[in-house]
Design a protein that fits this description.
Distance between the termini: 37 Å
Shape: globular
Low-confidence stretches: none
Order of helices and strands: EEEEEEEEEEE
Strand content: over 45%
Structural class: mainly beta
Oligomer: single chain
Mean pLDDT: 96
Radius of gyration: 13 Å
Number of helices: 0
Length: 124
């Protein structure tokens, strides 16, 4: 599967933004799709994931503000972000894997396929 992330940009604190992860080459609902982010000088961190099209998982820092959704007709996974904070500033990546187990859903190393990053900047 190939992944193409898009939708990043510059927003103000409190604003909303929706990131897209368009998949090609395979049906994305068969995969676990995760969103990760990386800020300068920091390790890539887990943001959210949809496990094989069924269960959703979120980092505590975004729970209640970020929502992962899927449009099967478009073979695209979205990350809807609301009430954004300056600490959400990062390069966001989407990733997918067909075989990872539930206990590994938050581990970046568990994902075989990655899209290019999209930069999100939240100003205060």
């Amino acid at each position: 599967v190939q992944l193409q992330a898009s939708g990043g940009g510059l927003v103000q604190a409190g604003d909303s933004l929706r990131l897209s992860c368009a998949a090609s080459g395979s049906t994305v609902s068969r995969y676990t799709v995760g969103w990760f982010r990386q800020s300068p000088g920091k390790e890539r961190e887990f943001v959210a994931a949809r496990f094989r099209g069924t269960r959703d998982y979120y980092a505590d820092s975004v729970k209640g503000r970020f929502t992962i959704t899927t449009d099967n007709a478009k073979n695209t996974v979205y990350l809807q972000m609301v009430n954004m904070k300056p600490e959400d500033t990062a390069v966001y990546y989407c990733a997918a894997d067909a075989y990872l187990i539930l206990s590994s859903v938050r581990a970046a190393s568990s994902y075989d396929y990655w899209g290019q990053g999209t930069l999100v900047t939240v100003s205060s």
